[in-house]
């Protein structure tokens, strides 16, 4: 009976999320797909509506599992820390990414694989549209796959991430690789509809990047059957809890839009 109740509530949650973007039609996700979708959520600790966006991200992660990766980017006015904040989640890369894809005109707001969908005028989407477009992107054919291997030296705090790429189809567009480091479960103040929560748990926070904010050029062969490998390194700052950190790698276009073809995530430990 317990498992039936869990299934029932997950089913209801999924139905509600899908109806928020009904113009996209019903789910057509193939079972067992290797397509991984990247959602970059722009948020801030002084944004009263942002906890609702974060809650929806968690629901979507529960639905899609390993086929969805979330990154929370703290940028803009609402990302200014409180006087008693222990952390400042703002990053130069996050601000540059918002300018690249936006700017954001309201929070919370997110991009889905950085695409500008035909019925939209921009890449940044309000939360009523996230579920439908994630479902749509997940159903797209996989053109290139990514596997990750992390190597972390706890004595020096140096993290190395090796990404292996396998092209399942020929890609004519020039490509770039972006590598982010996110940190999960950071307890620090956050404004909520009920007031300031001093012990709010922040998730999937962008902490920094191993590449340029707009990615590094992928110079390998992009024809069907080709493989390539790239390694990136950085020293993790002392305030980052490596036990809660993950590497997020995605391959994307950049001359004709910033479309993400595939993403991968791997915990440091």
Summarize the main sheet.
5 strands, antiparallel
The radius of gyration is 18 Å
**CATH homologous superfamily title:** Immunoglobulins
How far the N terminus sits from the C terminus, by CA atoms, comes to: 35 Å
Strand residue percentage:
35-45%
CATH architecture: Sandwich
Query: Number of domains in the coordinates?
Result: 1
Q: Quote the average pLDDT.
A: 90
Query: Looking at the structure, what is the overall shape?
Result: globular
Give the uncertain stretches in residue-range form. 1-32
Helical fraction equals: 10-25%
Order of helices and strands: HEHEHEHEEEEEEEEEE
SS-based structural class?
alpha+beta
CATH class: Mainly Beta
Within the CATH hierarchy, at the fold level, what is the topology? Immunoglobulin-like
Number of helices: 4
Query: Got a strand count?
Result: 13
Topology:
Blueprint: H1 2-19, E1 37-43, H2 50-64, E2 68-74, H3 92-101, E3 109-112, H4 130-138, E4 144-153, E5 158-167, E6 175-183, E7 186-192, E8 195-202, E9 205-209, E10 216-217, E11 227-235, E12 245-253, E13 260-267
Parallel strand pairs: 1-2
Antiparallel strand pairs: 1-3, 4-5, 5-11, 6-9, 6-10, 6-12, 7-8, 12-13
Helix pairs in contact: 1-2
């Amino acid at each position: 009976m317990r498992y039936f109740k869990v299934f029932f509530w997950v089913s209801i949650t999924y139905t509600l999320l899908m109806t928020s973007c009904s113009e996209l039609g019903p789910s057509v996700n193939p079972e067992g797909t290797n397509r991984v979708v990247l959602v970059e959520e722009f948020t801030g600790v002084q944004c009263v509506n942002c906890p609702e966006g974060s809650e929806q991200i968690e629901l979507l992660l529960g639905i899609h599992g390993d086929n969805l990766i979330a990154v929370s980017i703290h940028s803009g006015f609402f990302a200014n820390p409180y006087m008693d904040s222990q952390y400042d989640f703002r990053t130069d890369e996050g601000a540059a990414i918002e300018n690249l894809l936006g700017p954001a005109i309201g929070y919370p707001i997110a991009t889905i694989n950085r695409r500008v969908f035909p019925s939209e005028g921009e890449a940044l989407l309000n939360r009523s549209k996230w579920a439908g477009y994630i479902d749509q992107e997940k159903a797209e054919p996989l053109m290139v796959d990514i596997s990750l291997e992390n190597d972390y030296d706890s004595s020096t705090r140096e993290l190395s991430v090796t990404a292996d790429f396998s092209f399942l189809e020929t890609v004519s567009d020039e490509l770039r690789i972006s590598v982010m480091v996110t940190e999960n479960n950071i307890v620090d103040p956050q404004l909520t509809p009920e007031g300031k929560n001093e012990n709010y748990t922040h998730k999937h926070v962008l902490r920094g990047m191993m590449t340029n904010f707009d990615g590094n050029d992928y110079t390998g062969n992009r024809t069907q059957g080709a493989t390539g490998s790239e390694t990136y390194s950085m020293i993790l700052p002392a305030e980052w809890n490596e036990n809660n950190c993950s590497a997020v790698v995605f391959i994307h276009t950049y001359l004709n839009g910033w479309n993400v073809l595939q993403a991968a995530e791997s915990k440091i430990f």
